[in-house]
Design a protein that fits this description.
- The complex is a heterodimer.
- Chain A is built from six helices and five strands; from the N terminus they run E-H-E-H-E-H-E-H-E-H-H.
- Chain A is of the alpha/beta class.
- Chain A has one domain: Response regulator (Rossmann fold, 3-Layer(aba) Sandwich).
- Chain A has a five-stranded parallel beta sheet, sandwiched between helices.
- Chain A is globular, with a radius of gyration of 14 Å.
- The two termini of chain A are about 15 Å apart.
- Mean pLDDT of chain A is about 80; it is low at about 130-139.
- Chain B folds into five domains: about 1-120, 3-Layer(aba) Sandwich (Rossmann fold); about 125-215, Winged helix-like DNA-binding domain superfamily/Winged helix DNA-binding domain (Arc Repressor Mutant, subunit A), CATH 1.10.10; about 225-360; about 360-505, Rossmann fold (3-Layer(aba) Sandwich), CATH 3.40.50; about 510-635, Rossmann fold.
- Chain B is an alpha/beta fold.
- Chain B starts with a strand and ends with a helix.
- Chain B is built from 23 helices and 21 strands.
- In chain B, strand 8 and strand 9 form a beta hairpin.
- At the A-B interface, helix 1, helix 4 and helix 6 of A face helix 10, helix 11 and helix 12 of B.
């Protein structure tokens, strides 16, 4: 895991432009670090290596979609403790509920409010953004 | 945060009210258990503070009664009883905490905060919006690090906006949420507090319209969109830097989105040329994925029009794939082409900071049913899309029924069904040359209108027909047509009628309901919840006139038998005033005898409904009265 005064987030999205915007948002808002992965398989590999504080996972990806990737992360002893948040453009309530039923820590819908993304993640994971910025710990 | 304090010790109650108000709580204070019950079950509170020893109904019994009714808000008991048996009794009655008198004010406040946090009402340590920060624990507000000193009411207003940053709050809603039942403010008071709050925020460097007025609806925090160069210049440095990064990333990757759009356009052209067999199932799913990903990308970069149109294209592609054995009809292909062509223009927009769409205002939706594929309707749809209306065409009655999930059982949970559109347009015109439809198709469409009206009586149905004489009009309105337009009529005129209707349904109707039975009143309010009225409940008819003049409702519902002033007398007072001669008045009473009804109508009642009421029927009757009143206003003198 990363030092307590910052966070490291793994962004798994097949689109480079989304990776850039998400990492830019997290940096600008909370000075969080990002690790990038362009596919589900790469995401699992990066999660094992970097042990991020959380994973932002795109749902619709080719080959291995977000739901399959999440399932693989859950079944991997090295990654199962890492909280996963789905990032999706789907907005229907029933789909959102379906995603939540998989056991993910949360669902964030695109478009998200860019300079409140870290706050949204913190809220979903019960982190205190204020404490982290001050070099505090998880609450 | 709104607190109900139930304590018969007037000195202590006064002190507590004053202390809690200093800490930004909105306090309603009552002095006996029965009144406490009435208040707790009528108004919404974040926390209830109860004294143990109360006249009429003691605190523990009140607590038990509230919990037995499923009351979920935190309850804190105040008492001089200090024994462990008493504490256990209090907690087992359903109280969440227990404070022994005499108590330290600081301790009481801390315990209240813990309860509020536990009930997830204070789960965000800091509420923020751009550079604005509000700390619910310290009650401090900062803008760009500068402390802003606010009065209790200004603080509460700001906190409310920050807790639900995309919600539009009407002045009435603000009154009911932030003013206690004992205060009698008017909408002018709300405006005056808002003006002072805006001034203070502006003095600290915020935009004057950080809390913006949404005309005809209310107030909300201004969406932090940066639409133009001057706005970018004024934005905070962080936002400007982010926007710069966003713009660079968009320039670097715009080509990918354009390439996806070109693929969609190609697919759309293929569909138009080759018709139904133009796409394989695999190609169709690929197109759905492209539209979906494009929506995600464009939304992330703040190209909201492109985002909306991509989602619409995705929806059209999905709908065409859901009917077994049917590919795209010529109409669907044309519709997809319109959406995708418009999407191409939206790609030239510049990136913006966006607010989340989950809570944001959604564009109005119109479903057009056109079984003959008239270019007239396609033109209308293109014009509607161009004006920000999410318009779609169904090419058959079956397709429309499918889109609306009309054939699913009525009792299916609404959450599992797609929401109905805001409006339905049915085209009963066969074609430009021979306008009259064949009888079997016409009958099918008429039955469809009837089925829609039965299922969604509140859904406005507009009909375009070449046969609009009295007999046909009567038949259509009997079946549920709300607005009948005679063909030929220019598409621009139809669009203007659509916009008018959509505007009408976006404004919430204000209804005031007066009934001395607080428990029943709460049930009625819950019953009407799905119809999205703005309801003001009132249990004490003596407060009627004051509250009425603050709310200025569109309709009043009155119980007949009430203490001090009965419903008939309230109706007489209203009718005695020149301004309220035509205000819809509906009586709601247990009395079903003819004499009472005759008396009500003689006083000028518009309707008389006997308890018990069924939600849908009751809401429909209220809507009928509201619609009639609105039509009376529109009708020229």
């Amino acid at each position: 895991m990363s030092p307590t005064n910052t966070k490291r987030i793994l962004i798994v999205d097949d689109e480079e432009s989304i990776q850039k915007v998400v990492s830019l948002s997290l940096k600008m808002e909370a000075n969080w670090e990002s690790v990038l992965a362009s596919s589900g398989a790469e995401g699992i590999q990066q999660a094992e290596i970097h042990q991020p504080d959380a994973i932002l996972l795109d749902v619709m990806m080719p080959v291995m979609d977000g739901i399959d990737t999440f399932s693989a992360l859950e079944n991997n002893p090295k990654t199962r403790a890492i909280p996963v948040i789905f990032l999706t453009a789907k907005t229907q309530a029933s789909e959102k509920r379906l995603f939540q039923e998989t056991g993910v820590a949360g669902v964030i819908t695109k478009p998200f409010e860019p300079l409140a993304l870290a706050a949204t993640i913190s809220q979903l994971l019960h982190w205190s953004l204020k404490d982290q910025k001050a070099g505090g710990r998880l609450v | 945060m709104r607190v109900l304090l139930v304590d018969d010790d007037s000195a202590l109650a006064q002190l507590l009210t004053s202390q809690l108000s200093d800490h930004r709580y909105i306090v309603d204070c009552v002095t006996d258990g029965e009144t406490g019950w009435a208040y707790a079950t009528t108004f919404e509170y974040d926390l209830v503070v109860l004294d143990w020893m109360l006249p009429q109904l003691n605190g523990v019994r009140l607590c038990q009664r509230l919990r037995a009714q499923g009351y979920g808000m935190p309850i804190l008991l105040l008492t001089v009883k200090n024994g462990s048996v008493d504490k256990i009794e209090g907690l087992e009655a359903g109280a969440d905490d227990y404070v022994v008198k005499p108590f330290d004010m600081g301790e009481l406040l801390a315990r209240m905060r813990v309860l509020l946090r536990r009930s997830h009402l204070e789960n965000e340590p800091i509420l923020s919006w751009g550079e604005l920060r509000l700390d619910p624990i310290s009650c401090e507000v900062h803008y760009k690090g500068q402390l802003i000193t606010l009065t209790a009411k200004e603080y509460s207003l700001l906190e409310l906006f920050l807790r639900d940053p995309h919600q539009v709050f009407s002045a009435t809603a603000l009154l009911s949420k932030l003013w206690s039942a004992d205060e009698f403010p008017s909408e002018a008071t709300v405006r005056s507090h808002l003006r002072r709050l805006r001034q203070k925020l502006h003095q600290a460097g915020a935009a004057t319209d950080l809390i913006e007025t949404v005309h005809g609806l209310g107030y909300r925090l201004k969406s932090r969109q940066l639409a133009s160069a001057p706005e970018i210049a004024r934005a905070s440095e962080r936002e400007a830097r982010y926007l710069e990064g966003l713009t660079q990333a968009w320039h670097a990757h715009k080509g990918e989105s354009v390439a996806r759009w070109e693929t969609l356009l190609q697919i759309s052209k293929t569909l138009q040329e080759k018709g139904e067999k133009g796409l394989s199932e695999q190609q169709q799913m690929q197109a759905v994925q492209i539209a979906h990903s494009l929506a995600g990308t464009l939304g992330t970069f703040g190209l909201m029009e492109g985002y909306r149109l991509s989602l619409q294209a995705e929806q059209l592609l999905l709908q065409a794939g859901t009917r077994p054995g049917s590919g795209f009809s010529a109409i669907q292909a044309a519709q997809l082409d319109t959406v995708i062509t418009t999407l191409g223009h939206a790609l030239d927009d510049v990136p913006k900071l966006v607010c989340p769409v989950d809570k944001g205002p959604k564009p109005p939706t119109v479903l057009m049913v056109d079984v003959n594929g008239m270019s007239y309707i396609q033109q209308l749809m293109a014009m509607a899309v161009g004006q920000g209306v999410e318009a779609t065409i169904s090419a058959s009655v079956e397709a429309a029924a499918d889109t609306l999930s009309l054939n699913t059982p009525v009792q299916t949970s609404p959450e599992l069904l797609p929401p109905p559109p805001d409006m339905l347009l049915i085209n009963l015109v066969a074609g430009e040359t021979n306008a009259v439809l064949d009888e079997p198709i016409l009958q099918k469409l008429l039955h469809f209108i009837q089925a829609i009206a039965r299922r969604w009586p509140q859904l406005p149905v507009m009909v375009i027909t070449p046969q609009a004489d009295f007999g046909n009009r009567l038949d259509l309105v009997r079946r549920g047509g709300a607005l009948v337009l005679e063909y030929p009529i220019a598409p621009s005129d139809v669009l203007s009628m659509i916009n008018q209707t959509l505007q009408g349904i976006t404004r919430l109707s204000k209804i005031m309901i007066v009934d001395d039975d607080a428990h029943y009143l709460k049930q009625v309010v819950q019953l009407l919840h799905p119809w999205n009225f703005e309801i003001t409940p009132l249990t004490n008819p003596q407060r009627f006139w004051t509250l009425f003049n603050q709310i200025l409702p569109d309709l009043v519902v009155l119980d007949v038998e009430m203490p001090y002033i009965n419903g008939f007398e309230l109706a007489q007072v209203l009718r005695s005033h020149a301004r309220w001669q035509h205000l819809p008045i509906v009586f709601l009473s247990v009395h079903s005898d003819r004499t009472k009804k005759e008396q009500a109508f003689a006083l000028g009642a518009d309707d008389y409904i006997t308890k018990p009421v069924q939600g849908k029927a009751f809401a429909t009757r209220l809507m009928n009265r509201l619609n009639r009143a609105a039509n009376d206003i529109r009708r020229p003198a």
